[in-house]
Amino acid sequence: MNRALTVARLQFVAWPFVVGWPWGILALSFFINLALFASIGDIDPAPVTGGLASIYIVMLVASTQTIMQDFPFTIGLGVSRRSFYLGNLLQFTTQAIGYAAVLYLLAVVEEATGGWGIDLTFFGLPFLLVDNPVLRYLAFAIPFLLLGFLGIAIALVFKRWGVNGILTLTTATIVGFGGLGVLATWRGWWPAIGGWFADQPGGALLVGYPALLALPLAAASYLIIRRATP
Amino acid sequence: MSPVISVTDLTKRYRGGVTALDRVSFSLTENRIYGLLGRNGAGKTTLMQILTAQNFATSGEVRVFGEHPYENERVLARTSFIKESQTYPPVRVHHVLRAASLIHPGWDEEFAQQLVDDFRLPSRRNVRKLSRGMLSALGIIIGLASRAPLTFFDEPYLGLDAVARQIFYDRLLADYTEHPRTIVLSTHLIDEVSELIEHVLLIDAGRLLLDADAETLRGQVLTVSGPVASVDEFARTGTELHRVRLGGTARATVRGDFGPADHDRARTLGLALEASSLQDTVVRLTTATNGAAPAITGATSKEAHR
Description:
The complex is a heterodimer.
Chain A (H helix, E strand, L loop, with lengths): L1 H9 L4 H26 L12 H25 L3 H32 L2 H5 L13 H55 L2 H10 L2 H24 L5
Helix pairs in contact in A: 1-4, 2-3, 3-6, 4-6, 6-8
Chain B lengths: L4 E9 L5 E10 L4 E5 L6 H8 L7 E6 L8 H4 L2 E5 L9 H11 L5 H10 L13 H14 L4 E5 L7 H17 L3 E5 L3 H4 L5 E6 L2 E7 H7 E7 H8 L3 E8 L2 E7 L4 H9 L3 E4 L2 H13 L2 H12 L2
Parallel strand pairs in B: 3-7, 3-8, 5-6, 6-7
Antiparallel strand pairs in B: 1-2, 1-4, 8-9, 10-12, 10-13, 11-12
C-alpha cells in the first residue's frame, strides 16, 4: 500500500502538467464562450454551452497517457503492476473529488451571478433534473472516474495486445452496438428505449449508470495490467 | 551466503517461435560487478526483463533475493534496471529525478545532483528535448543515485561521448567501492569495462556460453603466434578457438587451464605468447561456439591485413 501511495504522489511531481492542462483548456473554453455570448447580446433561449465537456475529454486523454507513458516509466523504475494500478486509482479518485468540488462551486457562482451576468450556462449541469446537492456533486465527480477508467482500459488493450487488440475491440463494439441497433429497429423498440431514458431520473443517468459502467472497466483493467509488459 | 540471483533452466520463447533464452542456469553472489556480454539479440535484455518481472518466463525458475520478483515489492524496491530503451513521460529532467527518488529507498540526492553537474545535464529541460546522449546520462544518474542493492545497466551509454562514458565508469567504481552492491552491466564496449568486471556471463543465441571469474578467465585464454608446427603443438594442450594463417606462421587463440609450465613450454617452442583481452576472448568464444563461418573468415581477412 505504501508503494501505491508513492505512485499516486509520482503523478503530482509534475503537477503543472497534470493540473495545468485540464483547467487551462477549460478556462480558455469558458472565456471564449463568455466573450462570444456577451458580444452577441440577448438570445432566447438562454445559451447553454457544452464547454464543460472539455475537462472530461482532457481527463480521458490523460488517462490513456497514464498507460502509454507513465506505465513503462514507473514499472521501469521498479514498482509492481498492482501498486501502479492502485496508485493511479487513488490519484484518479483524488482528482475526481477535487475537480468536482471546484466545478460544483463554479456552478453555484454561475447561478448566483445570473449566468455571469449574461444568462450563460457553462458549469451548470446539462440536466436540470438533479436537485439533491449530494447527487449534484457526484454528477460532476463520477463521470471523471468513468472516463478515466475507459481511457485506462482502452490503452491497456493496446499495451497488451497491440494494434490487433484495438482492431478486435473496435470490431466487437461496432458489431455489438450495430447489432443492437438493427434489432431495435427491426422489433420497433426505439420508442420504448427513448421512453425508458426519459423516465430515468437525472441522478441515475449522471451518477448511477456511469458508476455501474466504471466498476467493470476498473476490474477488467486490473486483470489486463497484471500480465501487461511495459 | 545465499545468492542474490539464482536462475534455473530459464527459457523464454516469443510468439513466432523465437527462443530468446534456452534453459539458462546461473547464480550471482552479493556485491560483485558482473559483465553480461553477448551479441545483439543474444537474449541479454530479455534475461534482465525477466529478472525484474517486466517480462514473463516461458518456463524455468527465477529467484531474486530468494523470492520470485513478480509483483513482489520487497524485491522490486531493492532493484534498479536502467535500459537503453527506457521511455519517459514528457516532463522535465528534475521531475524524472524526483520520481526516481520517491521510488528508490536508498536514493542519494546529493550524489544525484553531483552527477547532474558531472554530465552537464540541463535539469529544467523537458526530457523529450534531450539528445540521445543526455537521455543515456539521465538513466545512468538514476541507476547510480538509486544505490539499489541490485542494479542492472543494459547498454546505458548509447550516444554518450568518450569523456562521459569514462565519467560513468569512474563514478560507478568509486561509488561501488564505498557502497558495495550487486551490479550487472550489459555492454558491447567490452574493452572499456574489462577492468571493471569481476565476473563474466556470456550468452549467445539464448544459451549461456560462459560463467567465469574475470581474473581466472584472463589466464585461461591465450593467443600464441609462431611457426605453424609449433602452434599446432601448443594448441593441443587446450581448445583452439580461432586461428589466422599467414604463410608459414600462425596465430591461434587457445583456451585451457594454463600454468607457468605452459608459458615456459610456449617459449621453448619459440612462440610469442600473450593473454587475450576480454573482448577477444568473448569474440572468439562466441564465433567458435556457433561455428559462424562467415564471421571467422571476416576476422581472418582483417587480421591478415595487419
